[in-house]
């Protein structure tokens, strides 16, 4: 390789590196701006209860996919740690639903806030085959309706959740 080719290759590599850095910075800035816009809509999440009754639907292991503004399945909420996927366990109690996530704070969904539990093909950028996501639509204390998505390790467990909601 001659000197001119080497210099040209190094300049091209530097330009590509700068371009990648600028794109990453723009993505981070967009994520932060979205969080600022959503902070007022979301407000504070419901507090965890001190005690709960026996589980109505036993613990379902899987993946917390994300939370979106209802009814827009692709408008991910990024406030706090709601925008990050995590391994999770979903359990239903008479008082509500507990979503315990690895590496993130648990989410408590009070029973009176739940408006619908259904299966969906996708939510928050996670597209699956037929009925691959369990979507819980609920109303925040701020009045905003959101959908929380959960993908169970065993999709047959969805029937317990959907049946329980129908009761």
From TrEMBL:
Residue spans crossing the bilayer: 6-28
Alphabetical UniProt keywords: Membrane, Transmembrane, Transmembrane helix
Keyword Transmembrane helix part of the UniProt annotation: yes
Taxonomic superkingdom: Bacteria
Residues annotated as domain PH: 42-164
Family matches, as Pfam families: bPH_11
Protein name: Transporter
